[in-house]
TrEMBL record:
Belongs to the MqnA/MqnD family. MqnA subfamily. It catalyses: chorismate = 3-[(1-carboxyvinyl)-oxy]benzoate + H2O. Catalyzes the dehydration of chorismate into 3-[(1-carboxyvinyl)oxy]benzoate, a step in the biosynthesis of menaquinone (MK, vitamin K2). This is Chorismate dehydratase. GO terms for biological process: menaquinone biosynthetic process. Pathway: Quinol/quinone metabolism; menaquinone biosynthesis. It holds the Pfam family VitK2_biosynth. Its EC number is 4.2.1.151. InterPro entries: Menaquinone_biosynth, MqnA.
Length: 288
């Protein structure tokens, strides 16, 4: 039974710091109906959004593409970048051109970044490397591969190390190659939840958007918490959060549409993705 069969509405929260501004001031206990928030890495949230055990929340862009027939995108909420993202990084001993027939170790925590790398290697470089999934530890990954893909907080901490490796920001590469921004995570709602409890869904969307606005009006508390939790400097974290885009509008939609189209062309997603938006007061009829 999916979450929509339970009294509680289940909300998915991305574990990584890049999503903090959207959740920082979001208080599930202040909502009018009972909710439960699950904090996890994208791979677990992706699964929950697909099988309906999570009603609403964040998931990776690729996972949205896989489950788009079950989900509606939420407006003005994403983790995107129009250029470097600083937390989706490929570490390699040689320049990326040397990897077209090499071995790349990839993190096992998110599909969006892995498939972005596959798209770029195939379409931008005509490459076909071997990919192996490992726990996100740079030293271990580089012992068995020519390059390693890290995301989120693991990528940030690895970027601070003096390892002498080439570092390629996949979002920067995507921007240079396509001219589009890259959307790494979206917020979506399961269609069953929209049908069965539209009022609490609308309240959650409004609360998430309000949290984002509050966070971006003064990043100081989030910057300070990131420094306390992970280290780094105030200047680094301020630039990191200011560089990210938390909106989802036409620019982010165009970049995501291109990414999903390429994923379909490469057979990474078996169906063409038709992106549909949730709107206030939406109530859909679920197809049998």
């Amino acid at each position: 039974m999916g979450a929509y069969g339970n009294n509680k509405t289940i909300i998915g929260k991305i574990k990584y710091t890049n999503a903090w501004p959207i959740f920082y001031y979001f208080d599930p206990d202040a909502l009018c109906e009972p909710t439960e928030m699950i904090t996890a890495v994208p791979s677990l949230l992706n699964k929950g959004m697909n099988d309906g055990s999570i009603d609403i929340g964040a998931l990776s862009s690729f996972a949205y593409g896989l489950s788009s027939n079950k989900l509606l995108l939420l407006p003005n909420l994403s983790v995107s970048a129009d250029g470097p993202v600083q937390s989706i990084l490929l570490f390699s001993r040689q320049p990326i051109e040397s990897l077209i027939r090499g071995t790349i170790a990839v993190t096992n925590t998110s599909a969006t970044s892995i498939n972005l790398l596959k798209i770029l290697m195939n379409k931008a470089l005509d490459g076909n490397p071997t990919y192996i999934a490992l726990e996100p530890d740079l030293k271990t990954m580089m012992e068995v591969a020519d390059a390693a893909l890290l995301i989120g907080d693991n990528a940030i901490k690895a970027s601070w190390e003096d390892h002498g490796l080439y570092v390629t920001d996949l979002s920067e590469w995507w921007k240079e190659w396509t001219g589009y921004s890259m959307t790494f995570a979206v917020w979506a709602v399961h269609r069953d939840a929209v049908e069965n409890k539209p009022e609490i869904i609308q309240e959650i969307v409004q609360a998430l958007q309000a949290s984002k606005r509050h966070s971006l009006s003064d990043l100081t508390p989030i910057v300070n918490e990131a420094m306390t939790t992970f280290g780094g400097t105030q200047d680094y974290w301020k630039r990191y959060f200011e560089n990210l885009c938390y909106d989802y509008g036409e620019s982010q939609s165009q970049g995501l549409e291109l990414y999903l189209r390429y994923a379909h062309e490469l057979g990474l997603i078996q169906h063409e993705v038709r992106m549909e938006m949730w709107e206030e007061n939406t109530r859909i009829r679920v197809k049998e």
